[in-house]
Amino acid sequence: MPYSVLERFLRYVQIDTQADPTSTSVPSTAKQLNLSKILLEELQHMGVQAEMTEHGYIYAEIPANVTHEVPNIFFCAHVDTAPDCSGTDVKPIVHTNYQGQDIILPEDPSQIISPAQYPYLLQKKGDDIVTASGLTLLGSDDKSGVAIIMDALYQLVNDPSIPHGVVKALFTTDEEIGRGVAHVDIQKLNCAFGYTLDGGALGDLENENFSADYAVLTIHGVSAHPCCAKGKMENAIKIASQIVDALPKESLSPETTEGKEGFIHPTKMEGRLETAKVEFLLRDFETEKLKDHADLLRSIAAEVLQAYPHSSFDLEVKAQYRNMKDVLDQHPHVVDIAVQAMQRIGLSPTPDSIRGGTDGAALSHKGLPCPNLFAGEQAIHSKHEWVSVQDMQKAVDTVLEICKIVSGK
User: How many structural domains comprise the chain?
Assistant: First the structure.
């Protein structure tokens, strides 16, 4: 049975696929497989060659319908949703012919999606807007991308007038917790380049993203019984708290930066009197500045520890992902094709930067240039999440146009 991008999207968001950063299993939650299995079934019904791996990844392939040689390309989206906000029992609501008013979510009227807070809504008058009901996120990140790719594949299979080479799809799990392409088989994918569908406003084309490190600061304090602790106890919890408090307050934090400004972001603290740990995200568009952020964190810790002569600290830094621009600059045609595709369907593409990461960044650094295309996602990871149906449809059109351009038509 054929589905429009909206009909697919409404079904997909009702499947709970929330990832779990504390889990060590792959995928991190078994419920992600529920959507992967549905996608596999739908692809097979379409007549698309597809398989699901033990990690919940879906690899799909449509053979070329042109006889000359063209590069294999892929489109990628992730099935999981963020752990930041509940993804259980999502009830999508379609607000047809939106006219610029506040959208009050019925199951929690205190949740109001307002153009004052989300000015892009004012550009969507006349569109059909999809929201959740007020108790959960919507899951547009990235079930918009999933629905867009699935609808585009359906059209490629059923409309032989659309010329294309070999077109592949990759659906991943656990992208929201930084593990999205950890188990991707590059040889199995066997493509020259591709595009993730995991972006925001109409025409957005993201070819640059944060480089990212993860840091763990461990404080080794000195324990003593409270009854006789004077001059002896050096409380690791208090030391860790002082280090966090000593971070810059007017800069270098998510709440004080924008654009291409990086940050040092404490995300978790745990500890006891003798040992405490603080986890940090280090982010910057200039990869070399990540070392500067780690050095600043190290110097702040050392300064605080001067008042605690019998305590010490360790700082462990691990690389997470890197700026896709480092790779895409070596393959400018990949971005140029997306720009041309959007222009052909009447859009004004706007190259942009992501203050975050995507599967595309990791794939780019695995040797597959992969910028990120718009999917309509707005206010992601929150109860205010919303998407324009028309934006999603234009993304479908963009995917099809990319296929045509790569085919040489």
Answer: 2
